[in-house]
Every structure is written in structure tokens, then in C-alpha cells.
Amino acid sequence: MVVGQAGIPGVGECDEPGVILGLGSSSQDFEEHITRLNSASLRTASRALETSLVAVRARLNYSCHINQLPPETLATIFDHVPPVVKIVTSPWKSSVKDCTKLVPVTHVCKYWRAVALGASFLWRHISPSFPAQVSVERSRNQPLYICAESEQQEVLHKVMHSGRPIVELEYDGMLDKGTILAYPAPSLRSLTLSSYFGDLSRIEPDRPKLFDGQAPRLEQLSFTDMFCSMPSNTFPALKRLHLSDCIGIQSSDLFSFFSASLGLEHLVMTRIDISIDRGIKSPIHMDHLCTVFITEVSDETVNMILSGISVNEDTVMHLARRDTLTVPQCYPKTNLRRLALWYTHHAVSIMATGSSTGILSTCFHYGRTHEQNYAFHGLRKLPLSQITELWAEALPSTERQTSSINMLLPNLTSLTTLHDNVSGTGYVLKHFIEDQSNPPLCPDLRTVHIRSDDNDDEPLNVGLICKFAERRKLSGCPITRIVINTTERERPWPDHYFKRILKELKKYIREVEFEWGHLPSMAMPALCNNRVHNRWKPWNERWERLREVVFDHDDDGNGDGNGNGDGDGDGDGDSDSDDDEYY
User: Fold this and answer.
1) Degrees (nearest 5) of the Cα angle 446, 448, 453?
2) N or C: which end of the chain has fewer CB within 10 A?
3) Cα(108)–Cα(60) distance, integer angstroms
């Protein structure tokens, strides 16, 4: 090597690596040196820097710890980079990813690019935001996960025609009149169709057979915003069915579909219109059905669906946003033991649970002027004689509405525990005090929980409770335990008031307890609280939200929490959508 001035290799006198090493040895001296270089020498130095910097950075990148990982491990890490495509039309989470987010990975360095492009499974996802043909080519023979729109129908048709395995297909085919569903799909596990008017059109006289009848692995099926008929396939592996905003379905087709899909576990129906063309001879037993969620569907349609099937006692049902309170009669038997009631400003909700059975039903009444006990007629269909716990969370409090509770209590012959969380009315206890029946109402009732209103000067009507306990004792059905529940973290009353309460209650009740800091909630099967899909909000969350709506409404002075206000705290007679979604 020839050494130039200041010990720096002379540009033009040595090879390019020598120039780079010289730069690194004394950059300050080199700055003085290059001021004396001519243009040709400067261009030579520039080329040396450009060429060598690429090689140096490549080697430096390779020396990073992450690049010491095996390519298979690095590719697995890359697989976590692209986010899952959000499919708003389906209640179930998509598995399709957005490959657009993988592109920056390929620009980091040559090694990352080689690993990313060499891992075909990273590119097996087709989505609207990334060129479909690129995904098809880079994924090579990997099974595909597809979320496509009408603009991508040409590629989609080619893929379907080629017989390439498809695991998941989500298709918004508003502009597609073709027959993409005519090809066999032996690998398909999930199908979501939205605004598609091809193979499933009701214009065709016969029920279509999807995928030429060859979709043996299909587990999940979702139709949204379609004028369609139910496919005539037998789906032995189908576990999840979702129908939303669909018209043109006939009841006979639906029940035929149920008969061919007896492994169904989760059923979701929203705003569907089903034509009742003929009845069914005997209900179809859905032995594997775990959850049913039906909302914004007419009473006639809901009653038709539920009368055409039978389910096991461990099936959980949520029937929401109805015109009347519906209690399903498709259970040959239930283990229901607990019942909760909300009669709020614009809706009536009931929740009935047992060790494995769960029913949540809601109807809206929106300011109807006629007598409102219609909502409680559905309660007659519950096995009231086996209910042991009653949770009164919010009830009508006017005299003209009291016949609803009068109807309910005489049928609760096995009731042992009452939770009276109705704010400040003493409404439920008064019914027991005024009871003259023989035997008395709820003869097995022994334990009563009463909510204390923390915001009142006199939060507990001790006199009413004592009168109630005395009346029960005289009737031969004494109350042996009473629990005062309050959300205050510490005892909310002064000592003298607390001692007076305790002394008065002890005259009539053997066990008097106070629980601070929380209000208990009703027990329910674990399945009720599992987020089985994004339309299914856990019931314990619904419970707490309903309780907040009622209590907040009571605290703000716009009503009594029992149906006389608007429930959103502004007193204008309307309600917030955030509250509505919990009904």
C-alpha cells in the first residue's frame, strides 16, 4: 500500500478499501487532504465510498443479533408484522392479513429481503390493499387466505378455477354476477359473503349447491346484505352461522339447512327477513348448539325459528331489541334457578340463569302510553316455580304498573333469596307486607339483600324492613338473614345511626350483615361471559352497564331509575346509543 500525506492512503494510489480505511484512521487530517484533490480524485473517492458503504453496511447488518437467527425463525417474526384485516360484516375475527405492511421489511437489508421473499407463507394473504397477483405469485403453492372486493374478481376467479387451496374467503362481490362458488373447495374453512348476487340469488328457482357440494371442512359461514336462499349443501363440519340483513330466505330452506348442519355451535342473526312458506312437522334437535344471538328480528320470525328447533339445557340465548319479551320454548328442560329484572326508561330486560342454562331477553317500549305490563307476559313461559333467586334491579314504580310484580311473585313458590336493588321505593317489600294470601307469597324466602342508596340522607328505610320482617314472621315464614349492600368503601353512616339500624333489625331478624364496597351480581354459566364473537358482549359487562345506566339516572335527579326518565342523564327523553347496545 502506498501511504500519502498525513499517513492517509492517497486517492488514486491505492485500492478502494484502502481509501475507506484511510478515512477511518484520521478524518480530520483527511478533510485537509481532500481540499488539495482535483475533481477526478474526488469522483474516485465518491465511488469508493458508495461501493464500500453498501458492503460495510451489509456486513454490519449481518452481525446484528437478530440476523444471527435461522431464516425460519426470522420469517416467523416477520409473520407478526402485518395486521389482521378487519371484517366489519362478520362477527368472527378474520385470519387474513394485510401484506402491505410486509413491504418495508423487504427494504431493510438484502438479508431480510431474501428471508421475507423466500418465506412463501408470509404472502398467502390476499387483501384489497395489496396487489392480488403479487400475493398469488409470492405465496407459490401455499393455501390462500383471501379478503377480496369486486375489483379483484378476475384474480379470484382464476384462483378458484385453478384449484388452488383456499382456507378462508371473504368476498364483497357487489359488482360480481359470476359463479365463483361453483368450484370445489375441499380446504375451505371460512366463507364470508357480503352484497353478493351471484350463485345465491333468489332469482334461481332451486337452492344452490355451493362449491359443487365439495366443502367438507367449512366451519364458518356468514352472509350479509344479500337477497339469497340457503345453500342445499350438507356441511358436516359447520360450527358457526351468521345471517345479517338478508332477505329472500324461506323457512323451509332454513330448516333444511339446519338439518344438514347438525354440528352447528353458534348462531347469529341480525335484521333478517324470512318468508314462512310451510311449517315443520317436528323440531330439529341441535345437539351441539352452544349460543344463539338474535337481534332486530321480527317477533314472527323469531318465534318461527325457535319453534322449529330444540336445544340442550346448556345452550345460552340472547334475544335483543325485540318488540315483545320473548322467552324461548325450545328447551325440553332447563336448570334455571335465578331471575333478574330491569324495567328501565325505554326497555325491559330479563336474565335467567342456572348451572348451565342462560337466557337474556330484551324488548323496547319507547314511551308507549298504554298499560305496560305486556312486557311481563313473557315471564309466564319461564319455569317460575323452580326459581330460587330473584334480582329486582329496576322495576315499574307507579301504582298502575304494580300488577306486573303481583303476577310474578305468586308463581315464585321456591324462592329462597331476594335481591332488592330497586332504588328508594320499598316497592317489592310492600307487596309482601300487604300480602293476605294463605299460604303467603314465596313461603321459602329466608334471605333478603337490600341496596342502600348512598346519596340519600336516610338511605335505609329501617321501619319498612322491620314491618316486612314482622309480617313474614307472623305468617310463619320468617326472614332469617338480611344483607345491606352499599357501594361505599367504608361504612357510610355515623356510629349512632348504624347502632340504631342494627338494634332495630335484630328484633326481627337473626342474622344482620353489612357489605361495603360493592353490589353482588347474579351467578351465570361461564359461557355467558365468554366473548364468543364480537356481537356477544359478556353478560357480566352488560349487567354492570345496565346497573350504571339505572343508578346514574337515579343519581342525576332526572328520574327514579325505574322507567320515568331518559337514562342518559340529560333528561330530554332520549337515550344514548352506548346504552342501547347493552340491551
Assistant:
1) 170
2) N
3) 13
Whether the Cβ atoms of residue 199 and residue 181 lie closer than 8 Å to each other: yes
Rounded percentage of the chain residues whose pLDDT exceeds 70: 80
CA distance 319 to 317: 6
Tell me, rounded to whole angstroms, the distance of Cα 59 from its chain centroid: 49
Q: Are 331 and 385 in contact (CB under 8 A)?
A: no
Q: Output the pTM of the full model.
A: 0.83
Paired strand residues for 156: none
Nearest to 220 by CA among 273, 163, 173, 261: 261
Read off the pLDDT of residues 22-43 as tens digits, 9 standing for 90 and up.
554 556 666 777 777 788 888 8
Q: Which letter does DSSP use for residue 89 in this model?
A: T
Q: Which three cell numbers stand for residue 92?
A: 368472527
Cα atoms found within 13 Å of the Cα of residue 21, Cβ hemisphere only: 11
- DSSP, collapsed to helix, strand or coil, labels residue 538 as coil
* Cβ atoms < 10 Å from Cβ of 38: 10
So where are the chain's domains? 5-63, 338-583
Using DSSP's 3-state secondary structure scheme, residue 283 falls into: coil
Cell 342518559 identifies what position? 568
* Plot region of 68 (φ>0 → left; ψ -120 to 50 → alpha; else → beta): alpha
Single out the residue of 52, 74, 57 nearest to residue 65, CA to CA.
Answer: 74
